[in-house]
From TrEMBL:
Active-site residue numbers: D71 (proton donor/acceptor)
Ranges for domain MGS-like: 6-152
Gene: mgsA
Name of this chain's protein: Methylglyoxal synthase
SMART domains, sorted: MGS (SM00851)
The species this protein was found in: Pseudoalteromonas piratica
């Protein structure tokens, strides 16, 4: 598939997700970076979003809980270019009943070429980047051109 260049805006739309064993760590991370996160649009799966709001006072658009469809909702927002950065503190040591949904979410983040942090160290590097407050270019699949050529 051909590729095109599009922009991730200076004001990012950030998805915040954490497995149960990592929710406290993500909430603490959000508190630590509250002043930076406040400048962006925040989305979260249900339980994680509620915890972050309660802990930090940040406004989070809450979707369903991950196992109830929230991971898939975030995936749809990535595919529709409504989310352009994913912070997902996943627990590699715990079995997850909704693992296929998690894999699909991470796959869509890769397909649509958005920055992803799956642990605190990577999230720290992303949030500290000067690019957090700048518009940046990314290469994505040219799906519209693909469709136009398939219909000919």
């Amino acid at each position: 598939m051909e590729q095109i260049i599009t922009a991730i805006p200076a004001k990012k739309s950030i998805a915040l997700v954490a497995h149960d064993g990592k929710k406290a760590a993500l909430s603490a991370w959000c508190e630590k970076h509250k002043s930076i996160l406040a400048a962006h649009n925040l989305y979260g799966t249900g339980t994680t979003g509620h915890l972050i709001e309660k802990t930090t006072g940040l406004q989070v658009e809450k979707l369903l809980s991950g196992p109830m469809g929230g991971d898939q909702q975030l995936g749809a927002k990535i595919a529709e270019h409504e989310v352009n950065l994913l912070i997902f503190f996943w627990d590699p040591l715990a079995s997850q009943p909704h693992d296929p949904d998690v894999k699909a979410l991470l796959r869509l983040a890769a397909v649509w070429n958005i920055p992803v942090a799956c642990n605190e160290a990577t999230a720290d590097m992303l949030i500290a980047s000067q690019m957090m407050s700048e518009q940046i270019d990314r290469t994505i699949p040219d799906y519209h051109n693909y469709l136009a050529n398939r219909l000919d």
